[in-house]
């Protein structure tokens, strides 16, 4: 296995993961906030919106990523041009985003639900609007939990990148698979696995570290 | 001058088909500068009452009027921006403090100011925050986070946060219930000072008489979701008229084993300067036992009451009454059940 191949695989994994995470959060964060806000104990309970949004989220969570790849090919075609994405790192962006935004939404909802309702009430009694409570109280109080949730999300997205192999995509996991399954370069496979492990460790531990560092509750 | 007028307020909680009344036609007038106590046993709707005042809860019926300078606001009809503006004038502190855990003392106190979209941390604002930190006695703690503070300090932060917008009224929902007695007293003294220095009107919800005694000038007793007694603290405490009030005033003081004895009650209001008990013992040659005694200071005057057990023999009783009449000491014979201890006597 050449260094170029390894570097390319690392680059592909990182690009896929980063871009999907960012886009998935752009969609998932607001959805999670709305899910919390419209829930029974939220700031503005609204069973209709909550049920509709909840159902959509559940649907995407229940379709396995592998199937999302196939189902979402038309959308990938529209965004990147028909056929031209195949084999490129961005071929997996759309399915990764759809597979993870729902997960993110539930994570965010959970993190916000952990914020003490007393604090929310206090903010309200001080004259804060629902929007201000969301921005200045909920998100800020839930920050440590949101960050540890973020680490978990990124790690699971890295796991999802393995499915890139099905549409001729790349990345470390696919590379490791190819080297181990088709090739004879077991060493190359182990190097790829090592890199995946290092990346996952860095993200998970880094996320937890920052989360703890930012958490002012126990010190 | 009334600052809050509560008229016929009612509220019930519905849970499926069950309707639980919480407030049943509560009417109160709170004057500017009052420290108004609302006391009652748990579940009588005290908290709901204050939460209706700042509209954390919406009453089912009745009216609340807030007199702000020349404006008379109908609190129940406020919405959106008007409601938020009103809440800045009627602040609240809580039993569990409810501080922002991820923000330090300074940021917690600054928080209400940041709700103004044009807010900037100017020199003047910084001065104001530091002033209020000093006012509540938290100098050198401004960089601390809530988790590093004691309960009393947390409540001081909550008070500072509630006061930063210069409210007219401060609502205290069991604000000292989670604190040890000494700390609770310090917080109550702080509230009293704020009332004096800033002319702040304070409404205190409590289930302990000691809280009301220490700081309030007026008290309302809630029982069965209604106001059963209302008036000056000394007046209500010296002469509790209802069963509920007697339970609260004498709870834990009068022992039920006196249920078969007759009792006699003296009230004094600071004018008394005679050694009463010593007099009875020496002059009447009767040994008395004190069943209940309490005194407190309201507006720098001492009020108190003393309940003693009547002697066993009729002739002793006559001698005692004679003595009291001669000395011109007012007294009242009371039955044990009037002290709210009828239940559970042994």
How would you portray this structure in words?
The complex is a heterodimer of chains A (219) and B (346). The N and C termini of chain A lie far apart (48 Å). Chain A has a single domain, classed as MetI-like fold (Orthogonal Bundle), CATH 1.10.3720.10. Chain A is built from ten helices and no strands. Chain A is mostly helical and 219 residues long. The relative contact order of chain A is 0.15. Chain B is α/β, with parallel strands linked by helices and 346 residues long. Chain B folds into two domains: 238 residues, Rossmann fold; 88 residues, Alpha-Beta Plaits (2-Layer Sandwich). Chain B contains eleven helices and 14 strands. In chain B, the strands form three sheets. Chain B has a six-stranded mixed β-sheet with strand order 6-7-8-3-9-10, sandwiched between helices. In chain B, strand 12 and strand 13 form a beta hairpin. Chain B starts with a strand and ends in a 12-residue tail after the last strand. At the A-B interface, helix 6 and helix 7 of A face helix 2, helix 3 and helix 5 of B.
Topology:
The complex is a heterodimer of chains A (219) and B (346).
Chain A: H1 3-37, H2 47-62, H3 65-71, H4 73-80, H5 93-113, H6 117-125, H7 130-141, H8 143-160, H9 172-181, H10 186-214
Helix pairs in contact in A: 1-2, 1-5, 1-8, 1-9, 2-5, 3-5, 5-8, 6-7, 8-10, 9-10
Chain B: E1 2-15, E2 18-31, E3 35-39, H1 46-53, E4 61-68, E5 71-74, H2 80-87, E6 90-93, H3 105-114, H4 123-135, H5 151-163, E7 169-173, H6 181-198, E8 201-206, H7 209-215, E9 218-223, E10 226-232, H8 233-238, H9 243-250, E11 263-268, H10 276-284, E12 289-298, E13 301-309, H11 314-327, E14 332-334
Parallel strand pairs in B: 3-8, 3-9, 6-7, 7-8
Antiparallel strand pairs in B: 1-2, 1-4, 4-5, 9-10, 11-13, 11-14, 12-13
Helix pairs in contact in B: 3-5, 5-6
């Amino acid at each position: 296995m050449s260094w170029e191949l390894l570097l390319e695989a690392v680059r592909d994994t990182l690009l896929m993961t980063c871009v999907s995470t960012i886009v998935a959060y752009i969609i998932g964060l607001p959805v999670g906030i709305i899910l919390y806000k419209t829930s029974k104990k939220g700031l503005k309970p609204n069973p209709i919106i909550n049920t509709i949004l909840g159902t959509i989220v559940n649907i995407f969570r229940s379709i396995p990523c592998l199937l999302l790849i196939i189902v979402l090919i038309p959308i990938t075609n529209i965004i990147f041009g028909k056929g031209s994405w195949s084999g490129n790192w961005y071929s997996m962006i759309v399915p990764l985003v759809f597979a993870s935004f729902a997960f993110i939404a539930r994570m965010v909802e959970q993190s916000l639900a952990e914020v003490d309702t007393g604090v929310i009430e206090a903010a309200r009694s001080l004259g804060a609007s629902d929007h201000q409570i969301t921005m200045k109280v909920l998100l800020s109080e839930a920050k440590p939990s949101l960050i540890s949730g973020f680490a978990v999300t990124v790690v699971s997205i890295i796991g999802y990148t393995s499915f890139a192999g099905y549409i001729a995509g790349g990345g470390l996991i696919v590379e490791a698979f190819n080297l181990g399954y088709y090739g004879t370069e077991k060493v190359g496979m182990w190097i790829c696995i090592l890199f995946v492990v290092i990346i996952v460790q860095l993200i998970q531990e880094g996320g937890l570290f920052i989360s703890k560092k930012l958490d002012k509750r126990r010190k | 001058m009334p600052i809050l007028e509560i008229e016929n307020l009612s509220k019930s909680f519905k849970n499926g088909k069950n309707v639980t009344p919480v407030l049943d036609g509560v009417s109160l007038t709170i004057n500017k500068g009052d420290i108004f106590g609302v006391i009652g046993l748990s579940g009588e709707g005290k908290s709901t009452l204050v939460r209706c005042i700042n509209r954390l809860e919406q009453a089912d019926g009745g009216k609340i009027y807030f007199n702000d300078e020349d404006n008379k606001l109908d609190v129940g009809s406020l919405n959106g921006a008007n409601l938020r503006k009103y809440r800045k004038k009627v602040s609240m502190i809580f039993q569990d403090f409810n501080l922002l855990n991820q923000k330090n003392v300074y940021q917690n106190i600054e928080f209400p100011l940041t709700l103004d979209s044009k807010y900037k941390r100017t020199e003047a604002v910084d001065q104001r925050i530091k002033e209020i930190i000093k006012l509540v006695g938290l100098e050198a703690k401004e960089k601390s986070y809530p988790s590093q503070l004691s309960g009393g300090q947390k409540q001081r932060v909550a008070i500072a946060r509630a006061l930063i917008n210069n409210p007219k009224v401060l609502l205290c929902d069991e604000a000292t219930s989670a604190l040890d007695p000494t700390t609770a007293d310090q917080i109550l003294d702080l509230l009293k000072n704020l009332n004096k220095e800033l002319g702040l009107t304070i409404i205190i919800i409590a289930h302990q008489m000691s809280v009301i005694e220490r700081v309030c000038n007026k008290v309302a007793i809630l029982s069965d979701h209604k106001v059963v007694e209302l008036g000056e603290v000394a007046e209500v405490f010296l002469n509790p008229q209802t069963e509920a009030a007697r339970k609260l005033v004498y709870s834990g003081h009068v022992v039920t084993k006196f249920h078969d004895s007759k009792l006699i009650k003296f009230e004094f209001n600071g004018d008394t300067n005679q050694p009463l008990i010593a007099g009875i013992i020496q002059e009447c040659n009767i040994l008395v036992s004190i069943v209940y005694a309490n005194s407190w200071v309201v507006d720098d005057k001492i009020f108190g009451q003393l309940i003693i057990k009547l002697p066993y023999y009729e002739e002793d009783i006559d001698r005692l009454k004679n003595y009291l009449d001669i000395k011109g000491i007012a007294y009242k014979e009371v039955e044990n059940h009037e002290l709210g201890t009828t239940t559970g006597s042994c």
